[in-house]
Amino acid sequence: MSCSGIRARDAERKRRERAELRDVQIPTLPRSNRTRRNRLEKDVCLWVAWYFAHIYIDGLQPHHEDMARMIVDAAKHGGDQALAAPRGEGKTTIFECVLLYCVMTGLLSFPVIFSATGPDAERILSTVRDHFETNQRLAADYPEVCIPIDALENNPSRAHGQTVSGRVNGVKFSKAKSKFKWCGREITLPNVPGSRCAGAIIATRGLDAAVKGLKVGAKRPDLAGIDDPDTDDTAGSEEQAAKLERRIERNIGGLGGQRRDIARVMLTTLMNRRCVSAKFTDPLLKPSWNGRRLRFLTALPERQDLWEEYISLRQAGERDGDRFGRKAEAFYLANRAEMDRGAVVLNPHRFNTTPAPDGRPLEVSAVQHYYNFVARNSLESALCELQNDPPEEETSQDRGITAYRVQTQVSGLPRKTVPSESIAVLTQGIDVGKFALHWVVIAWRADATGWVIDYGVQEVWGTTRGSDEAVDTGIKRALHARREAVSQAPYIKADGEVVEIKTTLIDAHYREAAVYAFCREVGFAFRPAMGFGQSGEAGKATFHMPKEGDDKKPGDHCYLSRQPKGLWLVCNDADHWKGWVHDRFMTTPATPGSLQLFGAPSPRPDRLSEDQRGHFSYAKHITNEIEEETFVPGKGLRRRFKLKSDTNHYLDATYMASVAASLHGVGLTLQVSRVAAARPSKRKRVQYLS
Questions:
Q1: What are phi and psi of 285, to 5 degrees?
Q2: What string of DSSP letters covers 547-588?
């Protein structure tokens, strides 16, 4: 044989060897696997739960099943669907898993997932590839798809020359070209004869780029999955939102072919009431999209007051070094049945079970997870991110005051530090409850410029829910504990000078006897107080200033009323003083008559500082009562405070501290009140403020 013949035969042998190496054998699917696959394909939820059990370790929750069936319904029948779910509930993951089901069962041949940005889209496509490459259950039941992909061995270029041999769904083949694509902005599945998904395309795109004319050859998309379309820009700009809305309605809506419109499914989370997601999930604005909104808490707990206590304890703990909120958690565990009463959660498995250094899990329930989110971020964030119920834009109905305004009104001083100013007096207000005392300490100049230098919660231990037994004892014990805490850690100026609290007013309307008994025990620095008026104590008459007499000493919108055993009750006009507190927070900081919180401001105008975020609970208490005007026939306009929420304890404590300051002559007019000017009478043995 000639040398050329030998070379030709050797080249042919090497070609056959290379062809053999490129050829991938597709094994025949065992009967048990085929039976399982056929059974699971009848229900998308069973299919996802089995093949992605490593993701859904607690099984698919009802809202996951809703999302899955919504996508399959769109794949089968077309149309548009929009659903808003809480952040973190796996919207993107369910999109990926269900689209794989639709493709591998032949329902779809060219689905596209649209994300807000190009990088988001690239991450989704990378995850889809990982599912095909690493999911052993998929590989066991869909070898015609997964084995050719696995044979690439992370080298996508091999897909161009790969051949396949075997038998799939009754079709026998040998060395058929699989011709698929495993890189770029879309992937094409192996073109295996007999496979229901042979040559199917899965693509992703960012909504920040052009989407018109998306097609591969003659094939056009048959379903568009729109995943969280909004960005900060589109949520904050009406112009940008309008562009995104047109892109979804016109550009994506026009991607279908001549014989079939493209189906569209949007899974999202609302950022505010103006964002694009809010429009598409509102049946009144976009009826053809059949919009729905899911909430993390389908029903709120009945005892919101206890959860406000929890938030306050959690935030206080973080400031005091209790990183994992164990003090707040102890309060929750002690009152869990009452705190969880009425709550209905979307996903009962949604809480952090990661063990902390002490070996205990970080959270024990989904309800606790929700309120930890509120404590760590804000209620507004929770309403958007978890509840899909963004708050209305705040208006100026209560002198223009908002929680944000209160949070940002900070002095720059550290907590518990008295300003190095001409401080006239340090006062404290305490609001009394069955399970906690809320207290606020304020430093005042004579011109009513104030600095809230400290506030917090003193727990009341020993009380039993549903019973009044030991309530008075528990409240007295808590009041003594608060008094002792101030005695051991007094308030000081920056130079170390100690400044004493001159007067503490304690709201006595809840347990009058306990407060009276405590004040008699400790002396005149602690005085009982009651608010009267529309927003004062329930059932009490409108505030009226009495004439001065032996048992009444008038002051500034308040008066002293003598009680048995030498005790004087400070009666005050609650409506006036709550409005007065709101006005102080609405006054420009550092000007006469302003009220500021401790803490550092933010260096950026678009973000809150850590100290400002920490004031969230306090600020909500301050603004949980609004002043409104109503017309009364024959009497004209009347102003009154209306509760937005029962959690207004810091507002009560703050206005009590303000009333206490007025007793020492603090006021906008710098006039000393008659109560402050009064002197003790030896004959009557009544102690007045001096």
A1: -85, -35
A2: PPBTTEEE-SSEEEEEEGGGEEEEEEEHHHHHHHHHHHHHSP
Asked whether 419 and 411 are in contact (CB, 8 A), the reply is yes
Q: Is residue 138 part of a domain?
A: yes
Which of 265, 293, 321 corresponds to the end of one domain?
A: 293
Average pLDDT of the chain is: 86
Q: What are phi and psi of 241, to 5 degrees?
A: -65, -40
Highest mean pLDDT, choosing among 153-162, 231-240, 319-328, 367-376: 367-376
Identity of residue 64:
H
SS3 state at 350: coil
Tokens of 583: 């006005």
CATH number, residue 539:
3.30.420.240
Residue 395: per-residue pLDDT: 40
Question: Could you tell me the maximum CA-CA distance found in the chain, to the nearest angstrom?
Answer: 140
Give the closest residue to 294 by CA, choosing from 382, 228, 389: 389
Same domain, 278 and 305: no
Q: Can you give the CATH number for the domain in which 191 is found?
A: 3.40.50
The reply to whether 41 falls in a domain is yes
564 and 626 in a single domain? The answer is yes
Which tokens in the block code for residue 259? 């014989």
CA–chain centroid gap for 554, Å, is: 47
Range of the domain at 544: 403-677
Q: Are residues 112 and 203 in the same domain?
A: yes
Question: For residues 27 and 36, what is the distance between their CA atoms, to the nearest angstrom?
Answer: 17
- Determine which helix (DSSP H) or strand (DSSP E) holds 49, and give its type and residue range: helix 44-51
Residue partners of 51: CB distance under 8 A and separation at least 6: 40, 97, 135, 137, 138, 141
How far apart are alpha carbons 148 and 142 in whole angstroms? 11
| Beta carbons within 8 Å of 449's beta carbon, 6+ residues apart | 421, 590, 591, 592, 593, 594, 595
Closest CA to 154 of 183, 179, 128: 183
Same domain, residue pair 353 and 288: no
Over residues 545-558, the pLDDT tens digits come to 888 888 999 999 99
Examine the domain organization and report whether 182 and 56 are in the same domain.
yes
In a domain, 687, yes or no: no
Residues 222 and 319 in one domain: no
CB-based contact 109:99 (threshold 8 Å): no
Cα–Cα distance measured from residue 550 to residue 688, given in angstroms and rounded to the nearest whole number: 12
Q: How far apart, in whole angstroms, are the C-alpha atoms of residue 366 and residue 58?
A: 14
User: What's the total number of domains in the chain?
Assistant: 3
For the chain, the distance separating the N- and C-terminal CA atoms, rounded to the nearest angstrom, is: 126
Whether residues 339 and 198 share a domain: the answer is no
Are 289 and 362 in the same domain?
A: no
Question: Which of 385, 414, 438 is the endpoint of a domain?
Answer: 385
Q: Report if residue 246 sits inside a domain.
A: yes
355 DSSP 8-state letter = B
Do the strands 201-206 and 625-632 form a parallel or antiparallel pair, or are they unpaired? unpaired
- CA–CA distance, 380 with 392 (Å, rounded to integer): 10
- Taking only the tens place, the pLDDT of each residue in 614-642 is 898 899 899 888 776 555 555 555 566 66
Q: Could you give the count of Cα atoms lying within 13 Å of 497 in the half-sphere of its Cβ? A: 8
Cα(516)–Cα(210) distance, integer angstroms? 73
Half-sphere exposure of 613 (CA within 13 A, CB side): 19
Give the chain's radius of gyration (CA, Å): 35
